[in-house]
Amino acid sequence: MNPLVLLLLSFFAFIALRVNIGFSLILSSVLVILHQDLPLVSVVNQMYSNIDSFPLMAVPFFMFLGRILNTGGITERLLRVADVTVGHVRGGLGHVNVFVSMVFASLSGSAAADTASVGSILIPAMKKAGYDPAFAVALTAASSTLGVIIPPSIILIIYGAFGNVSIGALFLGGVVPGLVIGVFMMGYTYVLAVKHGYPPSLKASLRDVGSALLIGAPPLLIPVMVLGGVVAGIFTPTEAAISAVTWAMLLSFIVYREIPLKQLPGMLAKSAVDFSVPLFTVAGAGIFGWLISYLGAADLVVQFILSVTDNPYGIMLMLIGFLLLIGTVLNPISAVLIFLPIIQGLGTTAGVNPVHLGVLTTVTLSVGLISPPYGVCLLIASQIGEVPLMKVIKAILPIVGLVVFVAIISLWVPDLVTGLPKLLMPKVFGL
Question: Helix 264-294 and helix 58-71: axis angle, to 10°?
């Protein structure tokens, strides 16, 4: 059997048998290495080299940051800011849902954390206010995916670290597409609110607005610290994550006093366990990705696509379709690590800028977080709202369409992605 076919078939067979994805990557890789009579020491070498990355250390700190935000009273303060800002518009709670997800995205970079924290508060509130439960769940799940697009994004860190692309430029590139998707979601919410009569919140007084902004200002310094520090070259992504964690701990443990100090060891331990699973996947993807390259998969895919079309837009549209497909069965981190050689090979063939390609890949793979059967954000929100999954899928399809539309538009109008990083980091583009 062709070793590349054996690698992919065995991997998806293990996935179908519900084997942990990290083990699936390693087992299928070992099977091919034995089949090809390659040295088994390659497994250890490639696994270690994939996790021996300083930028990768930013991920556990951002995961720990998300845990602090969820338990330290910061999410509630952000909800108050969102309510006084957009809550008075028709469909107010829906707009608050999207707005706070956009802000939360700029703090933790974790879509699942956003779904759990925001959803546990807003889904019951939206149901109580008369919103369709399926729509409340769908909007919460969909808006939480902004956490992988708007910086700091864990996926963009992974892509930059392993794809040799400037993480600061990727961060800047994700800003405009993320904001555009958020605005589109708000627009869709407004249309449904008018159609179904969803109510706005009471308009806040100037005093209430000032009070909410004053309370929310300290947490909102986190994205300024992270994005500004990385872009200005003051911090590496890892150092920026550590600085953000330090500031969040100061707020939650000392200023707000929402978390007793005795809980800190437990939070650190849980964050370490949370990181161990994706880290194991990263290690497994190291050997799997190496085999993908060694067996020439990238060249084969490029040749196949070129046999269909040599138009750059056609190549990229086929890549978007491929990413949408694999996103339904793989989480974005695994998809990036496994298929990065193919993604970058197609991007190079189509002449797409690496920063543009990285953000476009991230936007497209974010759809997988709300697409069955993987759809972790969809599953979390469905469980919180106690709504059958099939009803949620029906409600979320139009929102998925909006995200895919933005991905395609950003393909045709690259300045949506590259405009901001070109302006603030021109050296990355050779300007």
Answer: 140
